[in-house]
Amino acid sequence: MPTPNYVKINAERVWQRHMDLAEIGKTAGGGVHRLALSDKDIEAHVKVAEWAQARGFVVELDAIGNMFVCRPGSDPSATPVASGSHTDSQPWGGRFDGPLGVLTALEALEALEDAGVTTRRPIEVPVWNNEEGARFMPGLSGSGSYTGVMDLEKMLDCTDDDGITMRSCVEKLHAALPNVKHRKLGQPYAGFVEAHIEQGTILEDAGEIIGIVTDIQGNRRFDVKVTGESAHSGTTPRARRKDAFVAATDIAVALRDVFWDEEDIARFTIGKFEALPGAKSVVPGEVNFFIDFRHPSKPVLKELGDQIEVVAERHVAPCSVAVTQASSADPMQFSEKVTGLIAASAARHGYPSRHMISCAGHDARHFVASCPTAMVFIPCWKGISHNELESAEPDHVAAGAQVICDVLVDMADWA
Ligand code: HGY
Ligand code: MN
Ligand code: MN
Predict the structure, then answer these.
(1) For 11-217+331-412, CATH number?
(2) How far apart are CA 339 and CA 89, in angstroms?
(3) Whose CA is nearest to atom 4 of ligand 1?
(4) Is 139 close to ligand 1, i.e. is its CB under 6 Å away?
(5) What residues form DSSP beta bridges with 254?
(6) Cα 259 to middle of ligand 1, angstroms
(7) CA torsion sign, 95 to 98 to 104 to 109?
(8) Residue 32 and residue 117: Cα distance in Å, rounded?
(9) Ligand 1 atom, smallest distance to 362 CA
(10) How do the pLDDT tens digits run along the chain, 415 residues long?
(11) Domain segments of the chain: what residues?
(12) Which of ligand 1's atoms lies nearest the C-alpha of 199?
């Protein structure tokens, strides 16, 4: 069995790429504000495309605004393997959530190019559109449309809070890269691997460098609308009020108790809460809030998620409530064919590692059904993410890039 063509990545280059990309949409707090296909996110796509084209890699775009960096293999008829992630961020996000998966994979291609190594299969680096869902709900719609899990036209018709459609933003991306070829959705992959910061503290607490990600927990997300009656805050007695804020907060407190578990596995979050009309002397007549519920167990997702509407109805009088499920995704198990390669690479380089599940959602989930897929985690500072303070160590970024490079070399040689 010939020894695979493992090559050494360039640690300085991959770190500098992160710092350079972080300048695009940089916030005063040292994070990034780069919502999906905003001008800054489009600028980030153009920057990655420039880096790729400077190395002679082909860059392509598809109809949902995914971008692909492609490096040919010796067998052009072979199904490509891929590693990638996203450049869009949360409103006040960090420099590594997303870019780590794009830039470690780009580094792998550059290291192969530097070493003059040709793999059998072509290798692609996808930059998935709208992973975060911070601007356009649902998130993961780039990889979701690509794999057919989500409907392309429906995702293109999604609008942000200002009524701007995803479709118009994709058109702006295409216009920003006029010489880039378009390709149809759904190019199959023979294998997919994604590097990401852990967004938790397990690796950092254990002093380990590589997370061999075996599963992604599931989620259920809900829009909750509480309807009462706007009224004068000075003249309206409590007995006559239909105060949507009081009802919504009663529901929220009751739900917090329902979702509280001793083992602290359930993740129940109300991250967006809006009282309308939002005037200081008006009893709120409407409250809208968003629930993000996550759990590794499918039965628990069903049992607890189904409680939301029941509990809301129980606590809402004299107002009314509408609970709508915005999205859901089952827990997913990754392939041992790929986790085995990750573990072997970590051992080869002496990176302390562990098998673990992902509590965050990632584009990789969409490839589990169609090809061997897994993820590589590296630690991030105090597990902080979706926060401008998010940070990672250069050595850990380099280790992630080296493992991604090894795994791509292995997968690209699969028969
Ligand atoms: O929310 C998530 O799990 C991902 O970071 N977008
Ligand atoms: Mn992410
Ligand atoms: Mn994220």
Answers:
(1) 3.40.630.10
(2) 27
(3) 361
(4) yes
(5) none
(6) 20
(7) negative
(8) 35
(9) 4
(10) 667 799 999 999 999 999 999 999 999 999 999 999 999 999 999 999 999 999 999 999 999 999 999 999 999 999 999 999 999 999 999 999 999 999 999 999 999 999 999 999 999 999 999 999 999 999 999 999 999 999 999 999 999 999 999 999 999 999 999 999 999 999 999 999 999 999 999 999 999 999 999 999 999 999 999 999 999 999 999 999 999 999 999 999 999 999 999 999 999 999 999 999 999 999 999 999 999 999 999 999 999 999 999 999 999 999 999 999 999 999 999 999 999 999 999 999 999 999 999 999 999 999 999 999 999 999 999 999 999 999 999 999 999 999 999 999 999 999 9
(11) 11-217+331-412, 218-329
(12) 5
Residue located nearest, by CA, to atom 6 of ligand 1: 132
- The class (CATH top level) of 218-329 is alpha beta
User: Residue 7 is encoded by which pair of tokens?
Assistant: 């090559």
E strand or H helix at 102: helix 99-115
Q: Which atom of ligand 1 is least distant from the CA of 131?
A: 6
365 neighbors 140 (Cβ within 8 angstroms) = yes
C-alpha distances (whole Å) from 140 to each of 147, 192, 396 are 11, 16, 26
- Give the Å distance between the CA of 362 and the centre of ligand 1: 6
How many beta carbons lie within 10 A of that of residue 123, not counting itself? 26
Q: Which atom of ligand 1 is least distant from the CA of 385?
A: 5
Phi, psi angle pair for 180, to nearest 5°: -90, 135
Give dist(CA 15, CA 100) in Å, integer. Answer: 9
- Give the distance (Å) from ligand 2 centre to CA of residue 136: 15
Sheet strands (E) in 350-402: 353-358, 373-378
Candidate from 267, 362, 384, 387 with most ligand 1 atoms within 8 A of CB, to mutate: 362
Fold match flag (11-217+331-412 vs 218-329): no
- What token pair was written down for 267? 């993740």
Q: Do strands 181-182 and 58-61 pair parallel, antiparallel, or not at all (unpaired)?
A: parallel
Report d(CA 142, CA 132) in Å as an integer: 10
CA dihedral 169, 175, 181, 182 (to 10 degrees): 30
